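assembly run, all chains below
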Amino acid sequence: MTERKNPEGPGPNGTEDAFPAQRDDTGEVIATRRGMFGANNGGDTTGYGGLVRTVRLPGASQRPYGGPGGGEEGFGAFDEIADELEGALDEQGLIPENVIDKTVVDRGELTFHIEREHLPVVARILRDDPALRFELCTGVSGVHFPGDKGRELHAVYHLRSITHNRLIRLEVSAPDADPHIPSLVDVYPTNDWHERETYDFFGLIFDGHPALTRIMMPDDWQGFPQRKDYPLGGIPVEYKGAQIPAPDQRRSYS
Amino acid sequence: MTTAPHSHSSAGHHTASDFDTAESLARETTEGTVYNVSGGDWDEIAASAVKSDDERIIVNMGPQHPSTHGVLRLILEIDGETVTEARCGIGYLHTGIEKNLEFRTWTQGTTFVTRMDYLTPFFNETAYCLAVEKLLGITGDIPDRASVIRVMLMELNRLSSHLVAIATGGMELGATTIMIYGFRDRELILDIYELITGLRMNHAYIRPGGLAQDLPPGAVDQVRAFVKKMRKNLPEYDKLATGNPVFKGRMEGIGYLDLAGCMATGATGPIVRSAGLPHDLRKSQPYCGYEDYEFDIPTADTCDSYGRFLIRLEEMRQSLRIVEQCLDRLEPGPVMVADKKIAWPAQLALGPDGLGNSLDHIKKIMGTSMEALIHHFKLVTEGFRVPPGQAYAAVESPKGELGVHAVSDGGTRPYRVHFRDPSFTNLQAMAAMCEGGQVADVIVAVASIDPVMGGVDR
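ok done. output:
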């Protein structure tokens, strides 16, 4: 928990102090890359093998958040949503800073990173508060960041308000060692299958789900296929005398 | 359809008591046990059936059943003809498309996503490309011509998808004529697809940044001719089905789901519009310039299968309106963003071995411009990089909200792409629609959801 409050990334005293820090130090480091062409099997003959880059996701935003209908001084719909949510959390006796880890505005989209234990409360407020009224949840999408230590598994929810014609995103994370996130089926019954799907592919356990079983993969399947450490599989194919390796064995340029 | 008695082993069920008579007549021979099977006393069977009123019969309808829209397995608990509980078994068509995407470039992704809901390929492609373009920050740079062609193809696709929905739905009711009509008209649309993209399905024609290539000569004329013909054909569905008392009798009041139910189950598309809510992303969150087109959002207040049927018919009329407006709007121009770091060098021409880069272009990059050759090679093999972050793009597919959540880690491949397929979500409403109804009405209700398993299972 303390690591994530520090957005500076590799510090001068850290183990990775050999890396030059990026000039723009905001954002969340999810991976470090070496070389220019991402060749991880075979030598890098390009001469760029010493290059080190960090991969950062967009970091926390500062007020005003803006958003559609932004008026003077950049205040817009996103600020309204954040104000209403914080106000409603206050009413429930919760301190907004403890519930909302950070708020990210990126590419015209608003994301609240929520502490996982408070997710059901936040979802209920977002659904029921007349000023928020996010009636429709479009399900949950899992993302696996093996490089994001302590919060490897992310669950991403998109909530749509038909009343106010808005869309926001909630993001919750859990460590690989303790992959538990409260279920939202009580608040949004539509998440029933979506949570089963995310469990099936990522192994995220949604506490309180009525019947968390596999939905796509066979019931006796081992492992969680959408995790990054799970191989794609496939066999090499011979084409005109040459062997073409399986897709996950080919050279990747990322 | 296979029936299996729920596994109660206690005696007293009529199945068990039937065999009591038979077992008493069994005798051992050198060949093994021989049973003499004879009919039981009818009164005894009737009496035991009355006694066993707690019996549950589970009917597995599917996954291989002609009226379950592909490999959908319906698990129905029935009491006589009444469905007391209904559940779906899905996953039979899971092909791991989302995982596969993570091992191909962003551009190659369209080849995969087009195969998800195979009846709405252009919607899958557009939603995916809109998400990638949002990540790249080039949403505003897409040429107008590309957006107009995207809209035109999507509306043609809405027609072809609704035609299949109505045709297969009709067939499942026993109305084979409407099936013939539906597939006849869909064929006209598939011919247009073939002319424009080269393929009847699985097009990969819409690409991040625009389109794979421009419209071929004659496409506009063929689309115009189609619109004219379709305007003549559409009233036939009305004549055949809309007022047909048998058709209405099967559909009215069946598959009931009111607005609260839609919101809870997350149902969108014709289902939520049949509950009276004119929710359509083309109007509320326009993309690809939908705000510039004139069309209406039909709704019904019956919350049932018949309402959904009428909505689909009306949406087809509205789609024809939009297609006509697209044709009027088509201006000559590029169909790909100007950024050469994203746009594939596509000076395509038809050669003896199929479609490929034109010989002139190859002569240029091989003979005179080494940089162009390197650039071409890198862009195709390595792909373009997408700045880290995530984006959500949603389009109104014929089935509802088709959302794409795309995550990039700054590489040339998608880090994660998640499709929120409307069929997947809408299928959850099946239980609410079917429980308490009759077995025959399950078919009608599922047909009114119009799930496509390629999209559900991905």
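The helical segments of chain A are 77-91, 96-99, 119-128, 191-202.

The mean pLDDT of chain A is 81.

not gonna interpret more than that til we talk
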